[in-house]
């Protein structure tokens, strides 16, 4: 098993992972064309990092992070999204390696804070993130399609 930076050849596999993720989250719709477009934009964005977990040539997990600027902190911060390990490989420490890889990357980039979005009803994921020092925030995430 290997954790590495994603490349364009991984896009189809990552779109499949996003379909799996969005299938369990009510806020997002599965639209492979949009997910492929979004993944392509992420890989083109120098302020974004996408890591994948690969087993025997198969991409079985991913996580993305984008750089933002926090006026509250007066510095760059990271926003983690798209954290998914395919069902057959969960519970094997792969998610831990992906998230640790992203935390290390955020430290290398000098980010002052990491934030992530997680479905409030996904208790196992929330407990998992707390083991890495993530805390529940009073700030709620709202969105509007434009």
From TrEMBL:
Q: Which Pfam families match?
A: Acetyltransf_1
Q: Which domain of life is it from?
A: Bacteria
Q: Which residues form the N-acetyltransferase domain?
A: 1-146
SUPFAM superfamilies, per the entry: Acyl-CoA N-acyltransferases (Nat) (SSF55729)
What terms describe the molecular function in GO for this protein?
A: acyltransferase activity, transferring groups other than amino-acyl groups
Which protein, by its recorded name, is this? GNAT family N-acetyltransferase
Q: Which UniProt keywords apply?
A: Acyltransferase, Transferase
- Which organism's genome codes for this protein? Sulfuricurvum kujiense
CDD domains membership? NAT_SF
UniProt keyword Acyltransferase present: yes
